[in-house]
Write a structure and sequence with these properties.
By secondary structure, this protein is of the alpha+beta class. The protein has 2 helices and 9 strands. A hairpin with a 5-residue loop joins strand 1 and strand 2. It is globular and about 40 Å long. It comes from Chthonomonas calidirosea (strain DSM 23976 / ICMP 18418 / T49).
């Protein structure tokens, strides 16, 4: 019933991703706060995984959290995400990965706005933004 997974070798990932995308998506890295290209993006559209193109978030659920990373209060479909316990850096967090390609996206916190109370704190390097064309 689950979706089809994308499996590539590390060599293949290195060929299709930029060095920053590879660091974040494949090595669970984090871009510096307040530096990502989508941190201040206010255009209308969707955010897809930069590794596989799976649409994960929309601009309708993006908000300014003050954290320094793009933040969303909900996902397009939670089944498109994998949530894993992360005990790195001496603390417990919930890691968010793309269910289709396994790419590291960021972390999930429970300090977001209503109606969900969630904050998906996502690296810009792990995303591709697709602007919604205006209907005219």
């Amino acid at each position: 019933m689950g979706q089809e997974k994308i499996v590539r070798s590390e060599e293949e990932w290195r060929k299709i991703l930029t060095p920053e995308q590879y660091y974040v998506l494949r090595q669970a890295g984090t871009e510096p706060a307040f530096t990502g290209k989508y941190y201040k993006n206010h255009e209308t559209g969707v955010y897809a995984c930069a590794g596989c193109g799976e649409v994960l978030f929309t601009s309708d659920t993006k908000y300014e959290s003050g954290s320094g990373w793009p933040s969303f209060w909900d996902a397009v479909d939670e089944q498109k995400l994998e949530l894993l316990d992360d005990y790195s850096h001496g603390m417990h967090r919930i890691e968010v990965r793309c269910a289709k390609c396994g790419g590291h996206l960021g972390h999930l916190f429970d300090d977001g706005p209503r109606p969900t109370g969630k904050r998906y704190c996502i690296n810009s390097a792990s995303l591709q933004f697709h602007k919604r064309e205006e209907q005219g």
